[in-house]
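Below is the record:
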Amino acid sequence: MPILDDKVLGEVKKALEHMKQPVTLKLFTQAFECGYCKDTHQLLEELITTNPLLKLEVHQFESDEEAVKSLGIDKIPAIAVLGAKDYGIRFYGIPAGYEFSSLLSAILMVSTGLHKISDQGKKFLAELKKPVHLQVFVTPTCPYCPQAVILAHQMAFL
């Protein structure tokens, strides 16, 4: 049974039609004892059908040590959103409910390079002296969480 129905797939296809550059979603999963790994994999398989610039790579968390280490993955399911480079944008858990829009936003930003950080915000980020590890904890039913996630992703992008 599909996760995304035809109506939602149509809306996603329309939202992603503005993609300019390829985006790879690297899914980290494992075959056993992983809540939401199977559902996350299915969701991403359905999502990549909406635009040919969208690719999916599946990595096994327990056996693909090189990819896990190089992308800093420490829990599963995990999705790394990569474009021409790795901006550090990650999703842990299934991007369901309101968080699905955060995933679409990240894909579009990585593909187009468009973000909404103000000049003042860009200046602040440029003046940071050391790396920042920013995490946003969400629930799929919180209507306010996606904006916090999108802002964190925009900061990571810059």
